[in-house]
Amino acid sequence: MLTVWYCIRDQHDWRLVALAGLISCLACTAAVITLRQQRGESQRTDVRWQLVAGIMTGFGIWSAHFVAMLGYDDIAVAGYAFGLTGLSLLVAIVMTTAGFALGSRPGARLRDIIGGGIVVGGGIATMHYLGMSSVQFAGHFDWSPPLVVLSILFAIGPTVPALTMALRRRDWGSGALASVALMLAILALHFTGMAAATVIPDAADGHDRFILSPASMGLAVSAIAAAVLVIGAGAAVAHALAVAAIRAGGREFRILVEGITDCALYMLDPNGRVASWNAGAQHLKGFTSEEAIGLHFSAFYSDEDRALGVPARALATARTTGKFTAEGWRYRRDRSRFWAAVTIEPVIGEQGDIIGFAKITRDVSRLKEDQDRMAALTRKLDAAVTNMQQGLVLFDGDERVALVNARFRIMYRIDAKVPLEGLDMSDFFRFSLKSRSGGVVSEDRVAQSLDWMRACLSQPQGGGSVTVAYEDASVVDASYRALPGGGVVATFEDVSERHRSEARIAHMALHDGLTGLPNRTNFNARLDAAIDRASVDGTKVGIIVIDLDGFKDINDTYGHAVGDNLLQILGARLKAAVGDDEAAARFGGDEFAALCIFRQEDELHAFVDRLSTLLGDPMSIDGLAITPAASLGVSIFPDDGQDRDKVLGNADLAMYRAKASPGMQVCHYENGMNEAARARRAMAKDLREAIPRDELTLAFQVQCSVQTGAVTGYEALLRWHHPTDGWISPGDFIPVAEESGSIIEIGEWVLRRACREAAGWVEPHRVAVNLSPLQFADRDLVTTLTEILLETGLPPRRLELEVTESAIIVDKAAALQTLRQIKALGVTIAIDDFGTGYASLEMLHAFPFDKIKIDRSFILQSGQSEQARAIIRAVIALGSSLNMPVLAEGVEDEEQLEMLRLEGCTEAQGFLLGRPSLDLPDASLAA
After folding, report:
1. For the domain that residue 289 is a member of, what is the CATH number?
2. pLDDT digits (tens, 9 = 90+) for 451-478
3. Contact indicator for 268, 356 with CB cutoff of 8 Å
4. DSSP SS3 for 892
5. Which pLDDT does position 235 carry in this prediction?
6. What is the mean pLDDT of residues 598-615?
7. According to the model, what pLDDT value does residue 888 have?
8. Which of 329, 356, 351, 353 is nearest to 340 (CA)?
9. What pLDDT does 836 receive?
10. What is the per-residue DSSP string for 576-641?
């Protein structure tokens, strides 16, 4: 390895080496974006994207190789053989394209991706040694076989994981790692291959007739590198347009829901407070959204209902049974009432917990009036026996039939002309049962019917009812009551449909409506039973939590109908796959679960293998060939937990580990998995107590004029001194604060403290405060900001709020409204970390920013990267054209400051000008 290092250090021009690395980075990044584009927009592989990725990568590695060759100082290059040079470029393009096609073809498995990586790595190596062979100089190369083999392994080794991360994952982090790994493969091959070559001078001139001079080669490489950049930019633009289209669809759906006016549709938080309010709710309830949001939904009930706990029971029912429906009086803002039909259903989050409730209220007052009138009419009609909806039979004091209505004859299929009056009870039941069954009736059945009737009449209240099931699957409720003075009145009601509905409802309460699989409640009951059994007979229970991979992409690409069909097919497969002592369920969305009772772990492994196979088998839906994929997490009772919640939670942790690990479909729970989650929960808990315990403080970093050096302001930076862990980096605790939601409270504390401190400074310098995306999205931000300015007495013009692009891009309309309200207060607004996200000229034009802050990464790279300097120059020119000051972050040396001064930058901050200090700016510092 020292030979390789000496080759890099002593035999290459570092400037050209850096340029080669930049070209490799651009080509690899563009290739990863392009490959993900053709896999993200459609599950059907588009050969055009594969070809674009192959051409970009081939051109990129070829350009990087020859740029580095131009910087190779150990020989006097006369030129490059035209044929071999062209062949090396062709090999690079063809083999990288073939490798990408193999790894990203429909139904590609891990072995296909590994094979594709080997082909790409082999193409890089072939290109390198063909390119070396094209070099024309007075001598020849003597090769070191071990280093040649090592260089080829370096080309293939990082390429395989790079291709795996590019094709099997979708997040930005894995994309960056894939680009870096592919770039390392290119550079490691080049420098190891160069170290493997020893130059042997020759006296004879053996140059080819057709060669490219070094100058011509430099021009060719520059042109090709520029082409790679243009193609990569095009791929990035296409990807951005696809993401924008998806987000636009989500906004249209929200607008549709909010525009419904014929019923109240709103969301409650887990405690029952209104979280959203549509136009129908405003029309029906009389509250505006500003008045309603934050109210407890019990405000719409009567005082009596609230006193009786009716609202609380409604939420409890929805939480435990999955749905609450009721009718009753509800009240508007003016306390007028209406008869409402109410439905409340819990909203389940990604972790399976209840994150709120969806509530639908309809005004059915007119329907209620109609029902009341119908009830009154029904009571009157009951007096007219012949029109009763129930079968009615009246027995006199001698237990003989005195009256039979038409409904009874219909129910028991007895012709109206057949006389029944005068029959005694035994003959009546015998004849009726025979007519209904259409055949012979046993005397035991007749005696049973008589016994049921006498049992009802013997009850203390003088009557009762019995439910009778018949051979034709119909069900009849028979009620018997003794009459004063003797006699019996019997009513018969066909409740077959009700029983069927109750059976359906009971089934729906315990099964998923889409797949027919048991739901979470049903599965939990089965799991509890399996755990109880295992505790007695010594068996074990394997719990498998399943989450489909890429299911959202399928819904977004093909529509929810295809997604629902996929879930139905998977549900049918799971139902067919489970046997005795096994169960499968759907928890909701794309989350499933299964259990297996076993004695030998081989039984569990076979069950898991069976599940993973059927979950990955290809399927055809509406002519589309779709290959589903799933991540499975496995835990075992009692090995991984002593109760249901523990083993389910551990299986869930294992599933997320499988989902986060490329190439891992099944992950078994291990004891250390919950340590990281526990640590983040502990930090989140400590953060909630940091303000009351006075553990937070502010550091201030000076901001200066680039041209004059005068102090223009200070940026307030949050610091946390933990009572046991000491100073904790903001990079560690800020993400936890955002994840737990405590960033809202912490951000308000930072604003208030920064304004209070700045109000006490001798010099009226500006103070800059960062707003997190969650804080910026808080609907109370402007109100809170106004209160803080009034409370601290800081003039609004001395406060500058820094907003990142990510806080704006989520909801541009809401962001624009918030920024305008802040501007109306007189507070200035800076766009922070400019150039690292989605910022564009259109954004600067559309939003009322007062300042642009160049991200520190560009300043730090400005000494080595011409591209970074070009970006800095462009941003400063953009700010000048918009009459908007530009502040550069991260200035650490005089060279960087001088560069900014020459470019016309307005302000700067960084370690060169002053480090963040816990000491407050005083009069001498301000001066």
Report:
1. 3.30.450.20
2. 888 888 888 777 888 888 877 778 888 8
3. yes
4. coil
5. 55
6. 91
7. 93
8. 329
9. 65
10. HH--TTEEEEEEETTEEEEEEEESSHHHHHHHHHHHHHHHHS-EEETTEEE---EEEEEEEETTT-
**Exposure on the CB side of residue 693, measured as CA atoms within 13 A:** 12
In a domain, 375, yes or no: no
- pTM of the entire structure? 0.37
301 and 166 in a common domain:
no
The tokens for 767 are 């103070």
Ramachandran angles phi, psi of 79, nearest 5°: 165, -170
Distance CA 34, CA 205 (A): 45
d(CA 280, CA 265) in angstroms, rounded, equals: 7
pLDDT digits (tens, 9 = 90+) for 763-794: 999 999 999 888 888 888 999 999 999 999 99
In terms of domains, do 832 and 810 share one?
Answer: yes
- For 351, the 3-state DSSP assignment is coil
Q: How many residues are given for the chain?
A: 927
What tokens appear for 205 in the block? Answer: 């001139």
The per-residue pLDDT for range 798-834, each reduced to its tens digit, is: 999 999 877 787 677 888 889 999 999 999 999 987 7
CA nearest to 530, candidates 606, 605, 595, 580: 595
407-418 pLDDT per residue, tens: 888 888 888 888
Q: Residue 737: is its pLDDT beyond 80?
A: yes
Please check whether residues 488 and 535 belong to one and the same domain.
no
Instruction: Tell me the per-residue pLDDT of 564-596, one tens digit each, with 9 for 90 and over.
Output: 999 999 999 999 889 889 999 999 888 999 999
Please name which of 866, 893, 899, 895 lies closest in space to residue 16, comparing C-alpha atoms: 866
C-beta separation of 58 from 97 below 8 A: yes
Does residue 345 form part of some domain?
yes
Residues facing 717 on adjacent strands: 699
Instruction: Give the position of tokens 């018997």.
Output: 480
Pairwise CA distance, residues 249 & 875, whole Å? 32
Residues sharing a CB contact under 8 Å with residue 388, sequence separation 6 or more, in sequence order: 381, 382, 405, 407
pLDDT tens readout for residues 538-548: 899 999 999 99
Which one has a higher pLDDT value, 222 or 372? 372
Whole-angstrom distance, CA of residue 238 vs CA of residue 240: 5
β-strand pairing of 135-136 with 630-637: unpaired
Q: Can you read off the two tokens belonging to residue 879? A: 């700010």
* Helices (runs of H) and strands (runs of E) counted in the chain: 35, 30
| Helix residue ranges per DSSP H, 760-855 | 773-777, 781-792, 805-809, 812-825, 841-846
**Residue 499 contacts by C-beta under 8 Å, 6 or more apart in sequence?**
475
Average of pLDDT values for 280-301?
A: 87
Looking at the structure, tell me whether residues 718 and 867 fall in a common domain.
Answer: yes
Taking the mean position of all CA atoms in its chain, how far away is CA 139?
Answer: 60
Mean pLDDT of the region 486-510 = 82
Statement to judge: residues 62 and 203 lie in one domain: yes
Which neighbouring-strand residues pair with 239?
none
CATH number at residue 523: 3.30.70.270
pLDDT value at residue 44: 46
Cβ count within 10 A of residue 47: 11
Q: How many domains does the structure of the chain reveal?
A: 5
**Helical axes 172-195 vs 159-168, angle rounded to 10°:** 160
Instruction: Give residue 467's domain range.
Output: 384-499
Domain membership of residue 259 (yes or no) is no
Residue 787 lies in a domain: yes
Tokens 């920064």 correspond to 754
Least confident of 468-477, 518-527, 704-713, 881-890: 468-477
CB-based burial label for 43 (10 Å; 0-12, 13-18, 19+): middle
